[in-house]
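Not sure how to ask, but would you mind making up any protein sequence you like and the tokens describing how it folds?
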Amino acid sequence: MSNGDDDETTVDSLTERVAAAADALEAAETEAELDTIEADLEEIEAELEASELPALDEDEASDDDLESQLEDLREQLADKRGPYAEDVTAAIGAATETIENGEWTEQGTGEVDEAVSGFVETLDETLDETLGSAGEDDTTVVLTAASEAVEEAELDPDDDSETLTALLEATDSLSEALEAAQEWSDLTVRETLQAEGYYDVLGHTKDYPPEWAALKEHEKRGNTEMVILAFELLDSEFMEEHCLESLSRMGPVAATNEAIETLLPLAGKRDKNAIEILGKMGATEAVETLIEYVDADKDAALQKVTFRALGEIGDERAVQPLANKLLMENDTVRPRAARALGLIGDTRAIKPLSEALKADEDPNVRAQAAWALRQIGTKRALEAVVDHGADDTFIVQTEIDKARTALDAAVPSA
């Protein structure tokens, strides 16, 4: 419905036509009326785009305002259309695809059948049809028949709007029920553990949960791969803690490539439990990561577990970094460094440990240095302890006496 030539197009004329379209849209009751209004909106929009309207004062309507009003009317028109039979059949098709692609448990299969039966019952009542029901026929066959019934009903969006609305509500309920139905993916952890034979070790046990009972049995049998499987799959702080404790108790037995590869990323995030376990495993793969934490002076707990782990791993790469810590002022760090060097047992630590034994004013440092030298156990290491002479501190003197006894046993008197 044109308003004349472009020369006659004004903001006022377009504004009046937009207002008229809005009134018509509010009163529209049929698809044909909506089609007419849509054509009017398209014509107004085309004239607005083609017009060269003069600049307007701020208190006058602008072409931007008209564009916004046209966009709002188009949205209102779209909301007022339908529903259509195609919407219902499309929703039924989506539900059919969901059922075909789903991997349903026994419980889930029952829930799917129940959902489809409920939908078909509503469709039968709404269309006065008698379709098959889930359980008697394949659910997808039943839904295909339902879709065909909707098409054959030739429902009109004007005359049958209530019927179409009821059917769409039924398809929404069907979709929600299918979403809630149980699939095997909902039981991935339990099913994976079952398939991997994790529960095969269970006999008659009162321990609960069964995952924990199986874990303890796998620990006894040295089944590291099963412990790692449980650690990776079971989303439980309780089980995660017990899996790590099992690996810690298993020590070197648990030092498989898979276990080390699982723990290394955790150690890289400063996880103290992982660091401790890697130490007990003797995992040399962790040394480079752990050496980075030797100087973590602001995290005493991390430093403590790192020193211990490096000592238990016993890799010579850690000797110099640990020896450097014998010179720092912290009275807590120095004895731990000395003990770690003793656990490693590398002869290159004899000199820094001897100097700590000779010069350190802290008796605990001297005692740990003497202990570490005894663990190294060579003649030179034992002599370094004995040559210290007497010490006023009992724990240091005890180490000196033990070193002298060991040295006398190693070097018989002439």
The CA atoms of residues 354 and 384 lie 6 Å apart.
